[in-house]
Specification:
It is built from eight helices and six strands; from the N terminus they run H-H-H-E-E-H-E-H-E-H-E-H-E-H. With 201 residues, the chain is an alpha/beta fold. Among the domains are: 30 residues, RecR Domain 1 (Helicase, Ruva Protein, domain 3); 94 residues, 3-Layer(aba) Sandwich (Dna Topoisomerase Vi A Subunit, Chain: A, domain 2). It has a four-stranded parallel beta sheet. A two-stranded antiparallel sheet has the order 1-2. Helix 1 packs across helix 2. The longest helix has 17 residues.
Length: 201
């Protein structure tokens, strides 16, 4: 049996980094040895950032986005349209939509998508809170901005059934061709949706 020649703190960090999504054992080892060679200030700054992440951030009690203050800055902003609600899967989706500057309403973060294969059902997401929020709110339009994946589409269909109300408009993000893309490399589903969603010029 091979003996582990690495000091225990080094092996422990490799193991912890290896548990992160997208980081395999080799990447975890490379990162660990980089931090070992880096100056103390860089490694300690990383440790401090991780501690701050866990101690100072929480979920907004209204929209479930990540925040330091509760409610979050978006929910506190009186300049945003209170009749528009955009439902997304993850906090990073809020960041992406905000970068586009194309939406000025409110958000609701589900924290995932329905995925029976991974054992994620509606009760594991912030869907009950969404339904309650819609019933108690003054929304005129709900934008279902889930990802264009099988899980995202399933979640969207489920939400459509749960949120259908008289006078409430339910919409989906348009699906189409990316800017700078070539038709020949576009998958048939995206191309088909782009064709269906064509607009007059």
């Amino acid at each position: 049996m091979a003996q582990n020649v690495l000091p225990q703190p080094v092996q422990k960090l490799i193991n912890e980094l290896g548990r992160l999504p997208g980081i395999g054992p080799k990447s975890a080892a490379r990162l660990t040895f980089y931090l070992l060679r880096a100056g103390d200030e860089q490694a300690l700054a990383l440790a401090q950032a991780l501690e701050d992440l866990k101690q100072r951030t929480r979920f907004c009690s209204v929209c479930f986005n990540i925040t330091e203050d509760d409610p979050c800055v978006i929910c506190q902003d009186d300049g945003r349209d209170p009749t528009m609600l955009c439902v997304v899967e993850e906090p990073l989706d809020v960041v992406a939509i905000e970068r586009s500057r194309a939406f000025n309403g409110r958000y609701h973060v589900l924290h995932g998508a329905i995925s029976p294969v991974e054992g994620v059902g509606p009760e594991d997401l912030r869907i009950a809170e969404l339904v309650s929020r819609v019933d108690g709110g003054q929304f005129s339009e709900i934008i279902l901005a889930t990802n264009p994946t099988l899980e995202g589409e399933s979640t969207s269909l489920y939400l459509q059934r749960r949120l259908t109300r008289p006078g409430l408009r339910l919409t989906r993000l348009a699906r189409g061709l990316p800017v700078g893309g070539d038709l020949e490399y576009t998958d048939e589903i995206t191309l088909g949706r782009a064709m269906e969603g064509r607009q007059a010029m």
